[in-house]
Amino acid sequence: MISMDQLLLDIFLGMRVDTLTPAIIAFTLATGPTLMWLYSLVLGLLRRSVFPPVAVGVANLISHFSKKLLGRARPDSATHLVEETNHSLPSGHSVGA
């Protein structure tokens, strides 16, 4: 991990509040790629548009293959709230946004 990564990790770990951990874990799970695609599918059905699920699906595929291509390691798993097995870049949070 490069020094900037470690600096930012230390800052965010210092802001961690144990009482909020269950809520953050629930939010993380509720906004994962599979559920985001399902939400976009419902939105597409409500709007009678294929764009939302297609856009989210394509973004997820690009993210998946980009992670494999870039191969950027995640920080030590001891700092994770939720165990992740894939690479860190591009950020799933960025893709989901």
Describe the structure.
This protein has 97 residues and is an all-alpha fold. The chain has a domain at 34-97. It has five helices and no strands. α3 runs antiparallel to α4 (51-70). The relative contact order is 0.13.
Which series of helices and strands comes N to C? Answer: HHHHH
In the predicted model, the low-confidence regions spanning at least 5 consecutive residues are: none
* β-strand number: 0
Figure out the total of helices: 5
**How would you name the oligomeric state of the polypeptide chains in this document?**
single chain
**How is the main sheet built?**
none
Proportion in β-strands:
under 5%
**Approximate shape:** globular
Distance from N terminus to C terminus (CA atoms, Å) equals 25 Å
| Rounded radius of gyration (Å) | 16 Å
Mean pLDDT: 83
Q: Assign the structural class, choosing from mainly alpha, mainly beta, alpha/beta, alpha+beta, or little secondary structure.
A: mainly alpha
Helix content: 55-70%
